[in-house]
């Protein structure tokens, strides 16, 4: 009898189910809450994903992509990774030949070496040509502010005046600039029990930064805001809600301070889904300024976005525990607001998209 108990106890501890062995990563309780469930596989209205990345668009067969988009009710995908020159031209040609009204492609500028003689003139010329070839906007990666260096090897500030003409050109040509600056502030914070991104930083240690690497978070964000301030005639789309989705009061102040700034919701739906009432009111108030975006192309993750925006469901799971160890709640947005977020605002600021794909 004693032996039997001993064997069973040892089996119990070997199988890893001993309570004291449970780590935060392993702890993943199934919710026992029984409430109405309304999962949404397809958006209520056709939508524009303003923040997508397709790196092989110059050569890829687009048919499978279109099928996935149709399943989600995605009318237009904006591919932010267009590059420039020949690569961009080929991607635009591929789209024009096969699905001319289902994609928009943004150009990119390579910022390394700013300050070199003639850098700004050459960059302006290239971007002008890219837009002539059909680019519908400019995407600025977070490398500007984090990694790009000027001709002297110094970190390039986002608001460095030596890039002035680029932003002015975009305003002049009527194309928006989608800009991702910095990363969530938690990456700059101590990796301790107070850090909400502890799991992400533990499993992806490369994302952790010291408080000043390569500059304090607030400094990089302030540089981005200076850019908006310095170029009032250029439209900027602040990616990931400018990393203020966890502080919508502050984000609202920024929207009011910068009439030329829009925001998109890529990768921050888990922030919205944990404050359904406050976020609902924020979306009502700033309904003309918010765009739908997703970032990484994983069709299976879109339904969480739809459900947070459209449903009034309580406490449903998010797909990445390292973003959110909390559950989601639906914002229950009214149709008119959904339409603006899903496509009307994007149609207003991105030139040359086919409006006939979307309801009035
Ligand atoms: Zn992105």
Task: Give a verbal description of the structure.
By secondary structure, this protein is α/β, with parallel strands linked by helices. α3 links the parallel β2 and β3. The termini are far apart. Zinc ion (ZN) binds next to loops. The site of zinc ion has 4 residues, from loops.
What tags apply to this protein structure?
binds zinc ion; 9% strand; single chain; eight-stranded parallel beta sheet; disordered N terminus; 360 residues
Shape: globular
DSSP strand tally: 8
Output the radius of gyration: 23 Å
Biggest sheet: strands side by side, in what order? Answer: 1-2-3-4-5-6-7-8
- Oligomer state equals single chain
Low-confidence stretches: 1-16
Could you give the distance between the termini? 76 Å
| Helical content (DSSP H or I, runs of 4+) | 25-40%
**Mean model confidence by pLDDT:** 95
Ligands bound here? Answer: zinc ion
Task: Tell me the major beta sheet.
Answer: 8 strands, parallel
In a few lines, what is going on in this structure?
The protein is α/β, with parallel strands linked by helices and 360 residues long. It has helices at 2-14, 63-72, 85-98, 119-132, 143-146, 164-173, 198-203, 217-230, 248-257, 269-272, 276-285, 302-310, 335-349; strands at 47-52, 74-79, 103-108, 137-140, 177-179, 236-238, 261-264, 290-291.
């Amino acid at each position: 009898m004693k032996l039997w108990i001993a064997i069973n106890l040892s089996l119990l501890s070997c199988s890893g189910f001993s309570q004291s062995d449970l780590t935060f990563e392993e702890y993943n309780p199934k919710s026992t809450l029984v409430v109405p469930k309304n999962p949404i596989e397809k958006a209520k209205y056709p939508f524009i994903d303003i923040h997508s990345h397709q790196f092989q668009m110059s050569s890829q067969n687009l048919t499978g992509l279109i099928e996935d988009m149709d399943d989600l009710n995605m009318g237009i995908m904006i591919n932010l990774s267009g590059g420039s020159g020949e690569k961009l031209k080929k991607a635009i040609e591929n789209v024009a030949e096969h699905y001319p009204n289902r994609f928009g492609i943004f150009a990119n500028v390579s910022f390394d070496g700013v300050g070199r003689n003639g850098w700004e003139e050459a960059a302006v010329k290239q971007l002008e040509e890219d837009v002539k070839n059909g680019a519908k906007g400019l995407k600025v990666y977070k490398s500007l502010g984090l990694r790009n260096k000027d001709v002297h090897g110094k970190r390039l500030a986002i608001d460095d005046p030596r890039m002035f003409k680029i932003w002015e050109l975009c305003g002049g040509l009527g194309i928006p600039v989608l800009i991702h600056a910095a990363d969530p502030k938690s990456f700059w914070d101590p990796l301790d029990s107070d850090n909400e991104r502890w799991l992400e930083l533990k499993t992806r240690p490369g994302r952790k930064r010291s408080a000043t690497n390569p500059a304090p978070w607030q400094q990089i964000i302030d540089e981005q805001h200076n850019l908006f301030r310095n170029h009032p005639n250029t439209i900027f789309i602040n990616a990931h809600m400018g990393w203020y989705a966890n502080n919508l009061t502050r984000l609202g102040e920024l929207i009011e301070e910068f009439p030329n700034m829009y925001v998109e919701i890529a990768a921050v739906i888990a922030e919205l889904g944990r404050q359904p009432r406050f976020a609902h009111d924020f979306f009502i108030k700033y309904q003309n300024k918010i765009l739908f975006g997703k970032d990484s192309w994983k069709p299976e993750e879109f339904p969480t976005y739809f459900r947070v925006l459209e449903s009034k469901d309580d406490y449903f799971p998010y797909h990445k525990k390292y973003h959110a160890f909390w559950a989601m709640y639906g914002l229950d947005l009214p149709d008119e607001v959904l339409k603006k977020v899903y496509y009307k605002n994007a149609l207003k600021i991105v030139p040359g998209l086919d409006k006939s794909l979307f309801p009035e």
